[in-house]
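Page 37, continued from 36.
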């Protein structure tokens, strides 16, 4: 926060949320041109999402890779399962089917872990912002 005293007025340079916190702490009424709330609820969610994305920039790419590998595993599992059901399969086909199902399971677990981790990260940003 920076204060500058000019001829007839006091100029304050700081972020809007910092100013609102300071004024609320000092119990000072806001000028009518300033909004009573620093951000609307939707803007707050967008800010949290953007800040989380700035701190973990490749999260979307990782999720895309998880989805692509899971779909690839599902396609492979379908092919190996149809081979086994047709009677053309042997032990190697069964092992490959299990490998594909393991890939799908691993990608599903990574996707869910990324979702939980992102949710916790956004909650941490929200708590830090309220302090």
């Amino acid at each position: 926060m920076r204060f500058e005293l000019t001829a007839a007025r006091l100029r304050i340079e700081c972020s809007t949320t910092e100013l609102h916190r300071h004024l609320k702490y000092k119990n000072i009424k806001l000028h009518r041109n300033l909004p009573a709330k620093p951000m609307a609820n939707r803007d707050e969610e967008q800010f949290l999402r953007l800040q989380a994305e700035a701190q973990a920039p490749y999260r979307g790419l990782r999720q895309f890779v998880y989805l692509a590998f899971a779909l690839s595993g599902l396609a492979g599992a379908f092919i190996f399962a149809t081979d086994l059901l047709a009677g053309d399969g042997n032990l190697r086909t069964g092992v490959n089917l299990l490998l594909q199902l393991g890939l799908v399971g691993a990608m599903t677990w990574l996707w869910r872990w990324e979702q939980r981790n992102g949710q916790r990260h956004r909650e941490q940003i929200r708590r830090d912002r309220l302090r």
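The mean pLDDT is 79. Flag for discussion at group meeting. The chain has four helices and two strands.
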